[in-house]
Structure formats: structure tokens, C-alpha cells
Amino acid sequence: MASEVSGDRYQGKADRAPFICAAVFLTSLLPCFLTSLSAQQGAKLPLAKDVVKLTAYVSLDKVSRGRAFEVAVVAEIMAGFHVNSNKPSEDYLIPTQLLPELPAGYKVLGTTYPPGKLKKFEFSEKKLSVYEGKFTLRMKIQAPAGAPLGATKLPLTLRYQACNDSACLPPVKIPVPLEIQIAAASASAHAANSEIFRKQ
Predict the structure, then answer these.
(1) Closest Cα partner for 135 from 191, 80, 76?
(2) Do 66 and 148 have their domain in common?
(3) 59 and 103 belong to one structural domain
(4) How many angstroms separate the CA atoms of 10 and 22, rounded?
(5) Are residues 2 and 91 in the same domain?
(6) Non-local CB neighbours of 52 within 8 Å, separated by 6+ positions
(7) CA distance 6 to 18
(8) Is the domain of 97 the same as that of 83?
(9) Torsion of CA 113, 133, 159, 197, to 10 degrees
(10) Would you give per-residue pLDDT tens digits along the chain (200 residues)?
């Protein structure tokens, strides 16, 4: 009788062995599955820096020393996304800002932002003031009287947070490529990019 009981126990362990091995095998695959799933979910959203494409324009073909000029930054937002306007509807939202990092002597005389559009999204109970599609920011700058002649880079940065209808990407700052030509104070300058600057 003792040998029969022992045999039954052995047989029970033998019967369970394939199931135990299968469970261990599936458990070992779980991290790989979760990693793959996470990667697929992450692939659905672009990088924040890639959501907005920027192009900068200068109002003059060359800037005389000491003269004021305008810069227009045209921003094109990826379809399906928006960014908060410069005056967002809620205090917790990050405003879109054009930030100057100008060389010594250059002065910002003013920055103009377009009004936002009020839209309702899944993640907010209220309508939010946002930019969609394409919008233009304008900044008026004065060159110093002693500005070095020739090509001069004017570093600007656009700060924004991009969202779609249900989620927001991390806030980001991206550089705005901009270069002007500085001429002597007596040099005559001509209007440039009038199709951009005549728009109000």
C-alpha cells in the first residue's frame, strides 16, 4: 500500500511538471511583451521638438546700424496637434513664447502674438485658447549703433507644449534659425518678405 501511495504522489508531480514549465516559460516572456507593448504605444506620439516647424523672416534686406527692424517667425504645427496660445485659458498651462537671446546692444522693442482659438478637448472641462495649423509671431528689434558689419546671427527660442485631443507632450524649447546682414548707418535698406510682413 505504501508503494502505491508513493507512486500516486510521483505521478501527480509528473502530471503537473509540464504546466509548471509552461508557466515559467510564459512568465519569462512577460517582460519582453511589456517592453514591446510600451514601445508600440510610445511610437504613436512624435517627439515634442518635431511637432512644430519654424521659419524666420526679416523685414529688411539689410539692417543699417542703429535701425529698428522686424522678425517674423512662422510656425507650422503637425496635423492633429495644437499648442497653447501666449495667453492660455488656465494658469497651469504653459504659454507659447518667443524668447530672445540677442547679442549685446540689441534691444527688443516689442513682441506680437496672434490671438488663440477657443477649443474644447477631452482632457479639459473648459475651452482652451490654442494655436493650430499655422501661426505667425512678430518681434521688433533695434540694432546697436556699433553693431559689427556683415552677417550676424540672432539667437531666438520658441517655447511651447504640444498636445493632441487626449494627451500632452513634455514642454520643449527649440531654436529659431535667424541671420541678418548689418550694414553701415548710411546704407539704404529695402523692404523684404513683404508677403509675410504686410499681413496684420
Answers:
(1) 76
(2) yes
(3) yes
(4) 19
(5) no
(6) 75, 76, 77, 78, 83, 158, 160, 162, 174
(7) 20
(8) yes
(9) -40
(10) 444 444 444 445 445 544 444 444 334 433 433 333 333 345 588 999 999 999 999 999 999 999 999 999 999 999 999 999 999 998 889 999 999 999 999 999 999 999 999 998 887 788 999 999 999 999 999 999 999 999 999 999 999 999 998 888 999 999 999 999 999 999 999 999 999 998 65
Whole-prediction pTM: 0.76
What's the structural domain count of the chain?
2
Amino acid at 100: P
How do strand 179-183 and strand 128-131 relate by DSSP bridges?
unpaired
Same domain, 129 and 150: yes
Measured in whole angstroms, how far is the alpha carbon of residue 73 from the centre of its chain? 15
C-alpha–C-alpha distance, residues 52 and 44, integer Å: 17
